[in-house]
Sequence to fold (201 residues):
Amino acid sequence: MKFDYTENYILENEFVLLRPLELSDKELLINFAINEPEIWKYNFNGGNGKENFDNYFDTAIKQFKEKTQYPFIVFDKRNNKFAGMTRFYEISNEFKRLDIGFTWYGKEFQGTGLNKNCKYLLLEFAFEKLEMNRVGFGANSKNERSINAMKSIGCKVEGVLRDYSKDADGNIIDAIKLSILKKEWFESVKMNLKKQIAKNN
Fold:
């Protein structure tokens, strides 16, 4: 199956639901920008503050319409609350690869197992429905929480891109790149991630 930007992809299990981002979702997420600016510490062009979040959100919708990125809003079924966002990007049907990123959650959802459930659904869809060969990830090299989370689900570090991007304060930072390959998903990552989710839930 080829990735199709016009399709309404909905990914869910008993704990979480991901659906395509809509313009009206801004009001559901704006409080994270106003009340939890520390979420965006490592992200240049992040959503800290109402004005920045307007730009961040509007850019996500624009890139969705332009068919360059596919953003999801994340809903936590256990708490019956919207929790954050994530995206597919760098999508190539020709080379059978995509990246998962631009992921953030409100503080109350961090460390709850929500992220592992989201990543499981996204990876399962990428490898088993879209039949991708590779799923890539990236992060500010100082964002240890994010890097450890990616490693814990089975991502392999590929390298560091020096002076690659900026953080929220405009400082030049290195970026770390990671990935999971299709064979790794089926050999070990899927089962290990399932076990982690079962333990958390």
